[in-house]
């Protein structure tokens, strides 16, 4: 319940909608109450002046007109309320979705390491649908329900207090029976949602990598796994629904008994002459009117149960701690005039959640404009080093700084906007080539985009597409070859124009021809920038200013390629392995992600 109140708080700004809905629903309730009163008056007139020749018909005609008026007003008001309700729902939906998306975008990388995309999307859709649905049902029914109830109770009490008491008893009883149903119902609902979310997560992953699924001929198995999740929910739903409906039979049974009592009183009292026929007609209508809120109430309770389950998921995500709060951007004084910047790692230790240390006591620095290669075994923590520099994870101890300013004192946006990265996986988006190249610089002119593509050796192949820069490349760039994708990624990094550049095995998934083309692009990209290179070719590594070798999570050696070639360390070993032609030595090279 607290969560539902929080939701109302989140959507506070929608108060004009709430107010309009409350006012119209109260007016609807008012017109509902007019009908029985008018019919009572007509009944009394008709019964009183039964069937004479010269009866004045005008009062009953006017009452019929009044009835028409009440019903037309009712129709109009209901539809106005419905319209406002629709708009409120969609605005609420938009607010809740925006906040959820904003929250997700602000969560640290750690969160996404443990969540499937589809699960996150599934949860969002369900929570928000159920929350908005509840608010819509609530706004449209609750106030109307309360007013109808109070008014019919008051009018009934005026004529007969026993009937009023019987009517009044229904509500708490019904509420109580519904509430005891709720706990079990919700537990089962949460169970179902867990299955839906897992199935949805796998679904999105499978569709996203459909090529792999097809190539391994695993469609049937994926379908089975998916189907099994849903089949589990069928059983849960059976249990849940059986329980709900048995409880509903009990609730309605109680209701039927009470209504039996009410009608028994009305009929006997009228027969005894205590009520006029008009009063009897009025009471029957009021009792029927008071029956509606009971059902509205179960409707509301039902929607609120779903909404409570949904909002719990919603607020669980909203309660996740975001990446640290934004700090002022990098001080202008810290930026070098030539556009490059220095990087320092000081005694950095880091391990992923639930694992041991990946890096420990890592200390090295890169001077502005310098090119440094990181060499270490596969799984040795090279990419982790990159993630730390990007601020995707925070070191457990030690300090990373850019131009002498600690990452802790810089805004994450500031850090990331100063670092350009080309990963092994180009990670493009659906859309056009132009959009992808300009992803980090949407304000770039067409000329700048072309210039970047030229530098990245991409202009040639782009021009050969019929639509050129406006060619759609499909999800993750599926319509491009690996080398083409990577050249687009290089052009994207060129246009970002960041002073620090990281190349994390940027060419390692490419064939040698594409690699040469991409490497030329990378060479142009590196010019004048501080560069951290994790390369898979020794030739690339041998051309850097200095090499940092990592062994067992620690810095082993630092020196120029010439110096390290003579020390007998990892680099020297790699050089001798490369010179050797034995199978064993080749294998050893692969452990360093190095291509011989
Ligand atoms: N997101 C992650 N969560 C948990 N462990 C990870 C994650 N990413 C990498 N690792 C682990 O950290 C170690 C270093 O990985 P990585 O930095 O990618 O190595 P490299 O790039 O040198 O090949 C590996 O043992 C890997 O299993
Ligand atoms: Mg790596």
| SS strand fraction | 5-15%
Classification by helices and strands: alpha/beta
Report mean pLDDT, rounded to a whole number.
88
Count of alpha and pi helical runs: 20
Strands side by side in the biggest sheet: 6-7-8-3-9-10
Tell me the name of the CATH class of the domain at 2-48 and 57-194 and 235-318.
Mainly Alpha
Please explain how this structure is put together.
It is a single chain. The protein has 596 residues and is an alpha/beta fold. It has a domain at 2-48 and 57-194 and 235-318: ABC transporter transmembrane region fold. Helix content is 64%, strand content 10%. It is built from 20 helices and 10 strands. It has helices spanning 2-10, 15-48, 58-106, 109-113, 117-159, 161-208, 210-215, 219-271, 277-318, 382-389, 412-417, 433-437, 446-455, 459-464, 482-496, 512-526, 538-542, 561-565, 570-579, 583-590, and strands spanning 343-351, 357-366, 371-376, 397-402, 405-406, 419-422, 500-504, 530-534, 546-551, 554-559. It has a 6-stranded mixed beta sheet, sandwiched between helices. Strands 2-1-4-5 form a 4-stranded antiparallel beta sheet, covered by helices on one side. A hairpin with a 5-residue loop joins strand 1 and strand 2 (357-366). The two termini are 64 Å apart. The model is unreliable at 326-337 (pLDDT under 50). The structure holds adenosine-5'-diphosphate and magnesium ion. Residues 382-383, 504 line the site of magnesium ion. Magnesium ion (MG) binds at residues 382-383, 504.
């Amino acid at each position: 319940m607290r969560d539902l109140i929080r939701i109302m708080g989140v959507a506070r700004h929608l108060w004009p909608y709430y107010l309009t809905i409350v006012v119209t629903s109260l007016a609807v309730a008012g017109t509902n109450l007019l009908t029985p009163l008018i019919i009572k008056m007509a009944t009394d007139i008709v019964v009183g002046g039964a069937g004479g020749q010269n009866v004045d018909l005008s009062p009953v005609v006017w009452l019929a007109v009044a009835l028409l008026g009440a019903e037309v007003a009712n129709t109009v008001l209901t539809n106005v309320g419905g319209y406002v309700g629709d708009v409120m729902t969609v605005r609420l939906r938009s607010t809740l979705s925006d906040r959820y998306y904003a929250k997700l975008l602000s969560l640290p990388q750690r969160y996404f390491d443990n969540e499937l995309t589809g699960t996150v999307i599934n949860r969002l859709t369900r929570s928000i649908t159920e929350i908005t649905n509840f608010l819509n049902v609530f706004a449209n029914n609750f106030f109307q329900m309360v007013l109808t109830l109070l008014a019919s109770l008051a009018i009934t009490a005026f004529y007969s207090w026993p009937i009023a008491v019987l009517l009044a008893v229904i509500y708490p009883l019904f509420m109580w029976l519904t509430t005891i149903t709720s706990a079990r119902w919700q537990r089962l609902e949460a169970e179902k949602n867990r299955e839906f979310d897992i199935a949805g997560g796998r679904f999105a992953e499978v569709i996203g990598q459909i090529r792999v699924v097809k190539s391994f001929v695993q469609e049937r198995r994926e379908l089975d796994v998916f189907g099994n999740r849903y089949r589990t929910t069928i059983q849960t739903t059976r249990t849940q629904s059986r329980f709900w409906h048995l409880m509903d039979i009990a609730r309605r049974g109680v209701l039927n008994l009470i209504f039996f009592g009410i009608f028994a009183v009305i009929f006997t009292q009228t027969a005894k002459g205590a009520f006029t026929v008009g009063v009897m007609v009025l009471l029957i209508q009021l009792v029927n009117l008071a029956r509606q809120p009971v059902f509205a109430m179960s409707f509301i309770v039902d929607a609120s149960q779903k909404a409570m389950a949904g909002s719990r998921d919603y607020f669980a995500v909203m309660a996740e701690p975001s990446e640290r709060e934004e700090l002022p951007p990098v001080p202008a004084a810290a930026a070098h005039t030539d556009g490059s910047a220095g990087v320092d790692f000081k005694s950095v230790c880091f391990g992923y959640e639930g694992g041991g240390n990946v890096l420990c006591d890592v200390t090295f620095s890169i001077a502005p404009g310098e090119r440094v290669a990181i060499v270490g075994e596969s799984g040795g923590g090279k990419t982790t080093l990159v993630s730390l520099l990007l601020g995707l994870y925070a070191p457990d101890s030690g300090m990373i700084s850019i131009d002498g300013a600690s990452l802790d004192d810089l805004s994450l946006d500031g850090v990331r906007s100063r670092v350009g990265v080309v990963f092994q996986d180009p990670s493009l988006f659906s859309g056009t080539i132009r959009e992808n190249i300009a992803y980090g610089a949407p304000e770039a002119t067409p000329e700048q985009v072309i210039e970047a593509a030229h530098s990245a050796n991409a202009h040639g192949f782009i021009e050969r597409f019929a639509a050129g820069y406006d060619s759609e490349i499909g999800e993750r760039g599926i319509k491009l070859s690996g080398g083409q994708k990577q050249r687009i990624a290089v052009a994207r990094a060129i246009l970002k124009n960041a002073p620090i550049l990281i190349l994390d095995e940027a060419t390692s998934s490419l064939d040698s021809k594409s690699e040469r083309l991409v490497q030329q692009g990378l060479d142009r990209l590196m010019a004048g920038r501080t560069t951290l290179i994790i390369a898979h070719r020794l030739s690339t590594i041998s051309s850097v200013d200095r090499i940092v070798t990592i062994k067992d999570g620690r810095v082993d050696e630092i020196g120029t390629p010439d110096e390290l070639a003579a020390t007998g360390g990892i680099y020297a070993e790699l050089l001798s392995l490369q010179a050797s032609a034995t199978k064993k030595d080749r294998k050893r090279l692969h452990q360093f992600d190095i291509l011989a």
